[in-house]
Amino acid sequence: MRVLAAMSGGVDSAVAAARAVDAGHEVVGVHLALSASPGTLRTGSRGCCSKEDAGDARRAADVLGIPFYVWDFADRFKEDVIDDFVAAYAAGETPNPCLRCNEKIKFSALADRALALGFDAVVTGHYARLEDGVLRRAVDADKDQSYVLAVLNAQQLARAMFPVGDTPKPRIREEAAERGLAVANKPDSHDICFIPSGDTQAFLGAKIGIRPGAVVDADGTKLAEHEGVHGFTIGQRKGLGLPGPAADGKPRYVTGIDPDSGTVRVGSVEDLHVWTIGAERAIWTSGVAPDGPIECVAQVRAHGGTAPAIAEAVGDGLSVRLREPLTGVARGQAVVLYRPDELGDMVIGSGTISATGGAGSAPIGSQTEAAATR
Predict the structure, then answer these.
(1) Residue 76 CB partners (closer than 8 Å, separation 6+)
(2) 219 is in an annotated binding site
(3) How far apart, in whole angstroms, are the C-alpha atoms of residue 114 and residue 27?
(4) Model confidence over 261-295: pLDDT tens digits?
(5) Structure confidence by residue, pLDDT tens digits, 333-346
(6) Is 9 known to sit in a ligand binding site?
(7) Where is the tRNA-specific 2-thiouridylase MnmA-like C-terminal domain (predicted)?
(8) Residue 80 annotated as part of some ligand binding site
(9) Residues 159-174, buried b or exposed e (16+ Cβ, 10 A)?
(10) Which residues are catalytic?
């Protein structure tokens, strides 16, 4: 096949491209320029898509003996990822920009251009497995990225390749060194790539500005003032602007955000318990929504935040009822559904969280369990 290898300048994408070459594919490397004014150097493991990264990607392509290009996706990235991120926080949501980047840039804009140029698939260094069109968790659980790939539909998965998902990360670094790739020991990128300082609140403050509001307790009593709901997320404990813990001595957490009134509600950890999740923009990796309730495992964060559940399609969205409560579940996050089997956890689908139910939502009991026949 003729495949396009998305090369970030890191070790994972370099080895993924190398494995595609080994498999006999005709491989062309491409680095995505996602910033209109990329920095010269990264700050340690923070940030990406810098001039340094582009140079590292080019050198890796030279070692592999494949053609290499840099494609400018800065405008598209700003519109579909950065602007979406800022708008979501302004609306009191907690988005994951990596999901949007995969959905809108790497496996939409990039893949569409690749197909138009006659390529059959896009290769990336994501840690996930694709087997007969089924998306599964990576072998390396600590590096698994299936959560941020669960926004891909069946058509996008059909033209994707994840060559490193069957290998633990330490072995990938060893392989890169054996191949003579200079990125073998390059630090992994952390935090949000377009906020290399790591200060998300400062970034959002500069974009959104001051929108004052109140921090209140469960009874609506005003405890403090703040400069904008974008500085808070559900489950947050630190940086609330409060003089101390609650009267009972227990720590307080953000339990609710109302962007219209600018109100941030705080409460106990028990107030964070979520038993039901409603989501919109459901994506089913098989291309077909399930016909009725399904047994699954729901995950609400890239690493951690999992619970057994029963889920079902509801219109263009989905509804999830948890067997065990989850905490820190916020609107704008993704809920990803997995089904364990003998080959490892497979991704069933995903949706963008739009509503949650707490203590008033009863956990799943024996009567509803009988309804989950799949």
Answers:
(1) 104, 105, 109
(2) no
(3) 12
(4) 999 999 999 999 999 999 999 999 999 999 999 99
(5) 999 999 998 878 99
(6) yes
(7) 278-353
(8) no
(9) bbbbbbbbbbbeebbe
(10) 101, 193
